[in-house]
Structure formats: structure tokens, C-alpha cells
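Q: How would the C-alpha cells look for this protein?
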Amino acid sequence: MSDLKVSDNSIISIPLRNLVTIIIAVSIAVGGYFALTQRLDMIEKDTEIMRVFIDQNSEFRVKWPRGELGSLPDDAEQNMRLDHMEKQLEKLIGN
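A: Here is the predicted structure in C-alpha cell form.
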């Protein structure tokens, strides 16, 4: 068996088609890696946005019935009408 000597002057020969194939394979692998990481980043961002919406919805669900978030203009108008009807009813019953 011959001694294998490696130095900075060593020459490696590879067929051109093999070199091109290796370059293409590495390019596809790198492109796939970046596409995969980009997709994972988008999924994480979407998940975080959904978590914020869910938290806000849960807060709204709890606070709205308690009246801690205010009321709609329609609710205020309805309350005014109910108050008016109560006063009218009191006048009718009182007489």
C-alpha cells in the first residue's frame, strides 16, 4: 500500500458532471432549509397572534357581561326607553 501524502500542493480530480451535481444538491438542500425555517417562523408568528386574540376574547367574554367594558349606544338607548316605560307604568299604577 502506498503512502498517502497530503499537502497544499495536492491535486484532486473530480469529473465536472459530479461537481455540478454536488453543487446543485447542496443548493437544493440550502434552499429547502431556508424555506423550512421561514415556514416555521410564519407558523410561530401566526400562533402568537392567535394567542393574543384568544386572550383578548377571553377578557372581553368575562368583562362585557359585568359592564366593565362599557355598553353599546343601542344598549344606552334601550335603557333610556326602559326607564321611560317604568316611569309611565308607575304613573299608571299610582293613579
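Residues 7 and 33 are 34 Å apart (CA to CA).

Residues 17-94 form one domain.

Upvote if useful.
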